[in-house]
Amino acid sequence: MAGCHQIVSLDAEVHVTMGTFELQLDLDVADGEVVAVLGPNGSGKSTLLRALAGLKPLTGGRIVLDDQVLDDPDATVLVPPERRRCGMLFQDYLLFPHLTSVANVAFGLRSRGANKADANDRALEWLGRMGLADKAQSKPRQLSGGEAQRVALARVLATDPRLLLLDEPMAALDVGARGSVRHQLRSHLAEFTGSCVMVTHDPLDAAAIADRLVIIEAGRLAQQGTLKEITTHPRTTYVAGLMGLNLLSARASGTTLTLANGATLEAASPATGVVSVVIAPQGIALYPERPGGSPRNTWPTRVNEIHLMGDRARVLVDEPVPVTAEITAVSLAELGLTEGSPVWASVKATQIDTYPAQDG
Amino acid sequence: MAFLALPLIGLVTKASWSTLWNDLTTPVALDALRLSLICSLWATGLSLVLGVPLAWVLARTQLPGRNLVRALAILPMVLPPVVGGVALLLAFGRDGLVGKALYSLFGIQFPFTTAGAVLAETFVAMPFLIITVEAALRSMDSRYEEAAANLGSSRWRTFRRVTLPMIAPSLIAGTALTWARALGEFGATITFAGNIQGRTQTLPLAVYLALQNNEAVATALSLALLAVSIVVLVSLRGRWLGAIRS
User: pLDDT tens digits, residue range A286-333?
Assistant: First the structure.
């Protein structure tokens, strides 16, 4: 889905202040591009969407869509939500409970001036395209989560938006349904010609659907780029954690990396200055006592937390090198680890990636 | 329980059932029945027209002073109805704050007219509608209204097509409560509009008057009011259950 996008259709500089929270983000999205916005809870993801949709007025900055200014507090321009072409797929879909599927889809068409028969025909056509022709007369409560999502998507796409906003599109679904719904959503979005901004906290959704990732933390841009760029060079511990990686900051001198607390690690390739250190959790091994042989990066520590994920276990170890190790559930049982257990951790020099902390 | 039930049992057992039909069809009773129906329906209609928009403003806007407005809107619920009647008289009476101008400019007067009885019933009953509708609007997820706006729906269209249908069960319940309260209004009506047969003498007023000279008519009319109350209660219960089921 990646491609070369030249026409910028959304050009937004979003400043929203709410109490002590401040969202400040520049966001450009090209025609046909899908941008995923990721961030922890309370980072301002939903506020961003609400600002773009006109449900939350900006306190500063500017939103321009296809050369039309939608919001500019300095020029006292504020286009109300009903006169924007920014369709939103809400997190829990918000299908009108008193209307059938076809009436839900026809609602936006009727609001924009279509007559009853025409709106009904087009709504049926959209439901057909979503594979829901047989659910046209169903009320929202008779639909499964995936069906409700498709009705909501049909409802918003039927209004022919230029900018499509998806707010956590998978959050309301059972884990089991997500895979197939993600696949369907992706194919429907491929036909959509406008710009799309999707908010999610799941990197899997982002990876499957988006061309570009924008990660925000506490209302500010943490990092943006393609999935590959971000997984190879995460900029913050949150970003690294999101991608399942360990990120440390160190001062490099040749192949020796010195952490802020004085602990040292040996990398395979030399570097200088302040560097970001990335270690995949699978590259970290745990031992009940000092391992034999001579791995240089070996240190005694203590188990802080253990998370079981299917047949894998993520073990967070304490100072001097606080990292997450991923081992099999079988090894976890063999090691007999519990929270607080003493343990030896070890990582091969070739498993340690470094890159200058300042590059873009 | 007995304390609550005994008066009702008294009413039902002491009523002269054999003459019930005759008592209910005396001219006084018929006039009162007809008038009560007309006045209470007008009062309910006025409450809907004025009360629903007011409830919307209270629930959905950040209008400054809306707490004061809410207090004023609910005041008639706790105010003794007689005091309400006096207050109405001072405002809308022929010498009242507004009533004087209305009379001299347009010849409109409320005391001793059916319009006055309607006004008194509206004053006392409308708070029930405002309270019910405002509570319903507050408990409704207003993001549905945002979703409607996002789809291009104007505020008015959103209100008609989304908000009203979604609060319909509460709106119906509030309307029934308001109507029942208007139907039973006594104090404000007699104080403000007077007690003129066929013009301002609604059922409760007729009951009060009949009690002094014809007890059988009084109990017959009371039974009619009781029957209406029971019908309202039962139908409300059905509506509420229906709303949950559908």
Answer: 888 887 765 678 888 888 888 887 788 888 888 888 888 888 888 888
Q: Are residues A153 and A35 in the same domain?
A: yes
Distance in angstroms (rounded) separating the CA atoms of residues A182 and A198: 12
- Say whether both A176 and A297 belong to one domain: no
Contacts of A96 in chain B (CB under 8 A): 144, 147-148, 162, 165-166
Closest chain B residue to A139, measured at CA: B246
- Determine whether the interchain pair B148/A156 forms a contact, defined as Cβ–Cβ distance below 8 Å: no
Q: What is the pLDDT of residue A3?
A: 46
For B48-84, write each residue's pLDDT tens digit.
999 999 999 999 888 898 899 999 998 999 999 999 9
The Cα–Cα gap between B229 and B7 comes to 15
Residues 184-223 of A with CB under 8 A from B: none
- Cα separation, B225 vs B138, in Å, equals 33
With residue A11 as reference, give the H or E element that holds it: strand A8-18
- Which among A96, A97, A112 has the least Cβ separation from residue B152? A112
pLDDT score at A233? 84
Do A80 and A169 lie in one domain? The reply is yes
- Name the E strands within chain A: 8-18, 21-30, 34-38, 60-65, 68-72, 77-78, 86-89, 163-167, 195-200, 212-217, 220-225, 246-259, 264-279, 284-287, 298-309, 312-317, 324-328, 342-347, 352-356
Q: Is A96 on the interface with B (CB under 8 A)?
A: yes
Asked, for residue B218, whether it belongs to a domain, the answer is yes
Of B141, B151, B165, the CB nearest to A111: B151
Range of the domain at B222: 30-245
Q: Is B14 on the interface with A (CB under 8 A)?
A: no
Q: Does the predicted TM-score (pTM) go above 0.80?
A: no
pLDDT tens profile A230-246: 888 888 888 888 887 88
Is residue A198 domain-shared with residue A102, that is, in the same domain? yes
For the domain that residue A286 is a member of, what is the CATH number? 2.40.50.100
Contact B143 A83 (CB under 8 A): no
What number is the average pLDDT over the span B176-187?
Answer: 92
Question: How close does chain B come to A133, measured CA to CA in Å?
Answer: 21
Asked if the structure places residue A2 within a domain, the reply is: no
Q: Which domain holds residue A43?
A: 8-241
Residue B32 phi/psi, 5-degree rounding, is: -65, -40
Number of domains present in the structure of chain B:
1
- Cβ pair B162:A96 closer than 8 A: yes
**Residue B11 domain-assigned (yes or no):** no
Put simply, the answer to whether A82 touches B162 (Cβ < 8 Å) is no
Whether B29 shows a pLDDT value over 80: the answer reads yes
Which residues of chain A have a pLDDT value below 50? Answer: 1-5, 359-360
ipTM for this model:
0.78
